[in-house]
Structure formats: C-alpha cells, structure tokens
Predict the structure of Ribosyldihydronicotinamide dehydrogenase [quinone].
Amino acid sequence: MAGKKVLIVYAHQEPKSFNGSLLKIAVEELTKQGCSVTVSDLYAMQFEPRATRNDIVGHLHNPEAFNYGVETWEAYKRGGLSKDLVEEQKKVQEADLLIFQFPLFWFNMPAILKGWMDRVLVQGFAYDLSKAYDGGLLQGKLCLFSFTTGGSKEKYATRGDIRYLLWPMQHGIMHFCGVKVLAPHICYAPESVSEEKRKEMLTAWTQRLKTLWKEEPIDCSPEWYFK
Amino acid sequence: MAGKKVLIVYAHQEPKSFNGSLLKIAVEELTKQGCSVTVSDLYAMQFEPRATRNDIVGHLHNPEAFNYGVETWEAYKRGGLSKDLVEEQKKVQEADLLIFQFPLFWFNMPAILKGWMDRVLVQGFAYDLSKAYDGGLLQGKLCLFSFTTGGSKEKYATRGDIRYLLWPMQHGIMHFCGVKVLAPHICYAPESVSEEKRKEMLTAWTQRLKTLWKEEPIDCSPEWYFK
C-alpha cells in the first residue's frame, strides 16, 4: 500500500539472527510496496527501559513523592518529556502500522521492548482518563506482534494455548490504546529446525506481508484468547 | 517461620509510595517472624534490564552471531556471568520464598523487573533442557506476586479476569522454573481510594503475612487462570 507509514520496533541484539532476517524482509517488502518504513532498533539505540525521573525534563509536579504515571502525564502536557521519548512518540504518531519484532523471552517481550511500552505510551499521548480501548488515543492505527520462540509449537500446546500469553501485550497494551490488532506472526523454534524449514518461515513472512493491508484485525475480546 | 530466607525483588522508584509501604511491612513482619529478609531494590540499584553481551565476562561461545540464551548458558557453566547477575542468582539460590513487589504497568511487571527475570533466570541456573515445570531447577521454593494497580477491581473485571494477566508471569516464568506459586496479592487502585481504605489494604497485607507459611500454593494449571 503505497504511502502507508510503518514503524518497526525491533528488539534483537544480533543482525544475523532469525529476528534480524525477519526485520530485513519486512523493511524490503514494505518498502517495495511503496510504504515509508522506520525502524527503532532498540538494542542498537541502547534504548533505556527504566522508567525514572530522567524521563522528565525540568521540574517535577510533585517532587515530594515521585509518581511516574502522574509525572509523565504532566510532562507530556507541558512538552517536558525527555528527547528519546518525544522522538519515539513522533514515530508512533506518524505510523499507520506498528510492527513489533522480537524473540519471546519468558512468555513475553524482552525487557527492552517492555520498557519502550512503559515509557513511550504515556497518559495524554496513548490514552486518557476516559479514552481507552475503542476510544484510545492511538485509534486508526494497526499493529502486529511478530516473534520467534525457543520451544516448538507442540511444546507450547501442551501447556495451554499460545494465545493466552498474547492477552497482556495485544489487549492490555495495544487494544487499550485503541490500536487495532492484526493476527500475531509466530515463528516457532527457528534455532531448532532445519535450514529448509527456516527458509520456509522466511518465505511465509514475505508472503504474508504482500497481502497484509487486506487483513481484518482480530476481535480483541477475551473470547479470541480463551474461547 | 523463624529461619526461613526471603528475597523481595522490589520495583518502585519512590520509598514513600504505596508499594514502598507494602515493602516496609513485608520486611518488618517477616523479620519479626525470625525470617532473614533480603531486598533487591531494583531502581535504587539502577539494575540493568537490557540483555546484552555485557552479561558475559570474557570470550563468547560464538562471537560470529550473538545468541543471548546460548551465551548466558555457556557463561553460567564456566562461571562467566557478570557480577550483578551472579549476586542476584546467589540471593535466589538461598531464598525459600521470592516476593515480587511492583506496580502493574501495562498488564504486566515494569521493564526493570522483567529485565531481572530475563537476565537472572538463565538456562543452567533456573531450568535446563528437560528440567522445567515440576522438574525446574528452582524447585523447593515459593513465590508471591504482590502488586498494585491503577484501575479499580471493577474496571479490570469488565475486560475479563485479572487472572488472565498472571499467566505469563506466574506460569510462564515461576512455574516453568519449578517454583510453587502462592496466590497473588493485589491492591487495587491505592492512589484513587480513601486514606482509610489504603490503611485497610496495608493491614490486610500484614495479616496475610502472619499466616503466609501455612498457605498452600495455587494449582498453576490453565484451569486456575481461565476456568
């Protein structure tokens, strides 16, 4: 879809990794479609995951007792968030589609990516008191969680559905901000499979990207996750 | 229970916060019981949440393509993990009970605490190829997730059960490592309620701690979370 803007938030240390290959494919394929693609390469940027007082430039609203949520909300309103956050927010604001590319760490995203969520999606910017879920401030955007696992599909299936672990990230974060969620893209155990299987997984990602803009978002209700 | 060792992993920036009060209560009450209590105050320690090459001292197993899981596993086996990780692992090893005290950020733990999980619980130390779940390497230990929320209990209930978001942290991390999980301790919206209600919540935590050692762990199966 020519003209669409895509932000890929990428959390892997190694460009030669399978995640690195998935990133490369997404950049190439989406660029070929005429999209404008921006990448936030979190490890390369040495992105700060810790939510601290350093995120607020200048005075605090209440220096007596530091409250991160209140302080970042107030700082957002007066334009007093730290430069790295303002830059990420600008990228999010401009994007039509957010792709999160990462290896699953402990049934969840790596801390560096969780820190991006914690610090970038502040109140006032991503949601507000009565502006959440379908009324979230980032409505009109799409997102897609694309990740690799260590364990096989069969191993995950023995302990319940992999959709269970998507609830906090897809529903609790993106849906809360009003972002529509596309089906996740999961590459199971790329390190444990054959070179041929790995190539198949890369091809499948390319293929999916070709028709991505025609996809309908998932129904982000509890039923989708837990049936 | 005199003689028991407790590690509290604490993730809040402000000692005067409600989380700070919950921490203080736990330290005082458990010490009074004769427990030996250690606190990892992650923000005060400026704990590093990012999983990088810096976690490995000396040479890499495969410098051609950095793989964090493989490198930390190899480094663990040869005693080559960075000092901050070795110190945290020693605290975990000695503990009978792990308490995680934090404010819920985006249906999950704050990035600084997720980083503690990502970096401390490495293969070889917390689990191994065929040593997971009931056979996990940290078996014999208990844990408890104690957290505060921004939203009210009613607000959480409108979007499914709060147990849904406990799955990745309780089952995906602690149960995977063989740690038995006590029922979570949730303080809803302490910032939005009356001073009296806040005091009641603090008293309830003190009371729970008094009989904590008599509690049975939860059944950490999908049924507990999703019924």
Observations:
- Residues 47 and 84 of chain A are 8 Å apart (CA to CA).
- The first strand of chain A starts at residue 5 and ends at 10.
- The mean pLDDT of chain A is 96.
- Chain A touches chain B through 48 residues (CB under 8 Å).
